[in-house]
């Protein structure tokens, strides 16, 4: 039995697997290096990251594969239909990153509203001349309306925080009255999965519905936002600010985003707490151990799959 991970993990995967299967071979690299360098010819289980594209070409290299444990709650990097057809289980990491991602979404909202990156840059530049009445005026969140697109676990966690700040909360899921949320909200925060319906959900038309004092926050998936129209809206002052933790072609960043005014940028760190990442890795291990033991894991994504024996 052979278990392969594409990246180092904050848990001892080898010890856990060998405790159940003493003769198992477990390979965990010191850092992520991608799938291309890995020999998957006799791999029974694969632990992968959102960076790893799992498609038919990968499966062709892994004829013995029984489970793919994706260390993320989203799985748009995986061809689920191909896995299901091949009898390969797909697991993800729900719940454990909810609070960490909600915290970051709210932090980005506050940073954009209060123009914190501009303020820090001013202080670091040595050009700050002291307090001014009209210096870096931002937007107060108390009494404002937060519009959440995607009221799942993370969206609900953000809503709880917003109510604690005295904000009103409205929401919609893809296919519902998304336009109404964009038109009414003072802050729009995205928490939807990336699907054909949500790709470029935030486009020039919807940006045009937003108030000139409104803020956009995206901690979902980069391709949910059409980045060109967002840059244009911010540059023209048609919306107040935006904050992005995810990007359409990451790790490549559109050069226009780096110079765009009132845009807060973060390097996809929504789940980047020690607690969340450790629990995510543990869910991957749990999924691998369950499938290799002939059980259906609780975090099975493709529930219709007929597992290999």
Descriptors:
elongated; 11 helices; 309 residues; alpha/beta; Rossmann fold; five-stranded parallel sheet; six-stranded parallel sheet
List strands and helices in order, with pairings.
Layout lengths: L1 E4 L7 H8 L4 E3 L17 E4 L7 H5 L6 E4 L9 H6 L3 E3 L6 H16 L2 H10 L19 E5 L3 H12 L3 E5 L5 H7 L2 E4 L13 H6 L5 E4 L8 H9 L5 E4 L10 H5 L3 E3 L8 H19 L17
Parallel strand pairs: 1-2, 1-3, 3-4, 4-5, 6-7, 6-8, 8-9, 9-10, 10-11
Helix pairs in contact: 1-11, 4-6
What report would you give on this structure?
With 309 residues, the chain is an alpha/beta fold. It has 2 domains: 2-96 and 273-292, 3-Layer(aba) Sandwich (Rossmann fold), CATH 3.40.50; 98-265, Rossmann fold, CATH 3.40.50. It is 33% helix and 14% strand. It is built from 11 helices and 11 strands. Strands 7-6-8-9-10-11 form a 6-stranded parallel β-sheet, with helices on both faces. Helix 4 crosses helix 6 (153-164). The longest helix has 19 residues, at 274-292. It is elongated, with a radius of gyration of 22 Å. The two termini are 13 Å apart. The model has no long low-confidence stretch (mean pLDDT 96).
């Amino acid at each position: 039995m052979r278990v392969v991970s594409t990246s180092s993990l904050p848990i001892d995967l080898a010890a856990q697997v060998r405790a159940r299967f003493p003769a198992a071979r477990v390979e965990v690299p010191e850092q992520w290096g991608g799938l291309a360098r890995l020999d998957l010819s006799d791999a029974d289980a694969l632990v992968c990251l959102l960076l790893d594209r799992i498609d038919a070409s990968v499966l062709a290299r892994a004829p013995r594969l029984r489970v793919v444990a994706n260390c993320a709650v989203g799985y748009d990097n995986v061809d689920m239909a191909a896995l299901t057809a091949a009898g390969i289980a797909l697991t993800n990491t729900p719940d454990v990153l909810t609070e960490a991602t909600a915290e970051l979404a709210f932090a980005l909202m506050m940073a954009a509203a209060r123009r914190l990156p501009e303020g820090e840059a001013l202080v670091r530049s040595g050009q700050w001349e002291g307090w001014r009445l009209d210096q870096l005026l931002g937007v107060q969140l108390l009494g404002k309306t937060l519009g959440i697109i995607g009221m799942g676990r993370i969206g609900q966690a953000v809503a709880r925080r917003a109510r604690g700040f005295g904000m009103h909360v409205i929401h919609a899921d893809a296919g519902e009255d998304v336009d109404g949320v964009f038109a009414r909200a003072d802050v729009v925060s995205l928490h939807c999965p990336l699907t054909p319906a949500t790709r470029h959900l935030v486009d020039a038309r919807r940006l045009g519905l937003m108030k000139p004092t409104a803020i956009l926050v995206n901690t979902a998936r980069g391709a949910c936002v059409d980045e060109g129209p967002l840059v244009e809206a911010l540059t023209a002052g048609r919306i107040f600010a935006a904050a992005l933790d995810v990007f359409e072609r990451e790790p490549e960043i559109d050069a226009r985003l780096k110079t765009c005014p009132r845009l807060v940028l973060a390097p996809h760190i929504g789940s980047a707490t020690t607690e969340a990442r450790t629990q995510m890795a543990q869910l991957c291990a749990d999924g691998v151990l369950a499938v290799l033991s002939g059980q259906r894991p609780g975090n099975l994504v493709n529930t219709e799959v007929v597992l290999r024996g």
